[in-house]
Amino acid sequence: MMVHQQTTEEIDIFISEKIKPNFVWFRTLIDPLWKDLPEELMIDILSRLTVKTVIHCKLVCKKWRDLILDSSFVNLHLSKSPTVPIPGHHVIPLLLLFLTVRQPKVLMVAAMNDGQWTVVVEAIEEIIVVEVEEANGGGVVVEVVILVEEVVEVANGVGVGVGGDRWCGGGCRGDRWCSWPTVVVEVAMFGEEVVVQEMVEVVCGGYR
Amino acid sequence: MSKKTLTLMSKDKQLFNIEEHLAVQSVTIRNMVKEDGASSVIPLPRVDSETLALVIEYLNRQQAPEEDEDYVKKFVDERGEIPTLLELAQAALDLDIKKLMDAACMKVADLIKDFTLEEVREALRIENDRTPEEEKAIRDEFQWAF
């Protein structure tokens, strides 16, 4: 039987045609850069991205999704987001709200604490600052209503919202929620830090 | 009095000398020096020699403190390749050189922020382990973000 001896040219052709095109793919197998990196580093990098990019990154791989969903990530992301701290006020990262609310057009929010509507003090890019009084035991439930583009008629209750550039009354109470998507966020406060414990529910009522 | 020199050893066993007063910008090294005088070679098992050379270059900089911020930014800008930046960030993490790590991570974030998903995966050599169903679910949930 004849054994075909490969010439140097043939080997060169083999390398350039078969191996090089696959090199990038091949490299991902032999050299998984990401797997070697400390988690701390990746979290640090992800925490410097905008909310929108963070959501895109949830799709990159399972590991990233888990990192992003971790509550410590939310806090880190919050700490790196531009904000103007206001003494005596607490901040809730909008990241959390974005994670559950489908409407992108956030104009203003109203927060409810212990049956009392709270005026939102400021909304700065990714941060919503609400005025919240600390309840006994350090835990409070804050309901945050996100107002979407349109100004909607409300059934009862008071709240504060803004439609477009106009301030208006808004918000409602009881089981007759208006069509504003509602996010209920449970937070526990330790000193000045807001630690988010659980996303309780998302309510989209059918009032309108 | 001659200046005291420390020796750092990279993952691939290369040795680098650096004056102690410069090396202690690394909190890790500072603590080692405090504890035992760090007379012997300091091994850095996760840092390769190319990266360590960069770190040494950074530590040896002769910048006035007020220009330091600009310097570190320029320093990472010039090493715009993601793998290099990640190695640098990891070395800075291990050595606890906060400014360098912050700048390197910031640069990586800055580079990947406009990437598509595929580009992110390729740049960081991440295997896609999300199913098309999972991807669709997230895209549906966060329509506004896409």
From TrEMBL, chain A:
Pfam families, per database record: F-box-like (PF12937)
Stretches assigned to the F-box domain: 31-76
Superkingdom of origin organism: Eukaryota
InterPro entries to which the protein is assigned, alphabetical: F-box-like_dom_sf, F-box_dom, SCF_F-box_component
Protein name: F-box domain-containing protein
UniProt source species: Centaurea solstitialis (yellow star-thistle)
Automatic annotation (TrEMBL), chain B:
Keyword Lipid biosynthesis: no
GO biological process, one term: protein ubiquitination
Residues in SKP1 component POZ domain copies: 5-62
Cross-referenced InterPro entries: SKP1, SKP1-like, SKP1-like_dim_sf, SKP1/BTB/POZ_sf, Skp1_comp_dimer, Skp1_comp_POZ
Parts forming coiled coils: none
Annotated ranges, domain SKP1 component dimerisation: 98-145
Keywords: Ubl conjugation pathway
Pathway: Protein modification; protein ubiquitination
Gene3D superfamilies: Potassium Channel Kv1.1, Chain A
A Pfam family of this chain: Skp1
Stated role: Involved in ubiquitination and subsequent proteasomal degradation of target proteins. Together with CUL1, RBX1 and a F-box protein, it forms a SCF E3 ubiquitin ligase complex. The functional specificity of this complex depends on the type of F-box protein. In the SCF complex, it serves as an adapter that links the F-box protein to CUL1.
Subunit structure comment from the entry: Part of a SCF (SKP1-cullin-F-box) protein ligase complex.
Record-stated family: Belongs to the SKP1 family.
Protein name listed in UniProt: SKP1-like protein
Organism, as annotated: Centaurea solstitialis (yellow star-thistle)
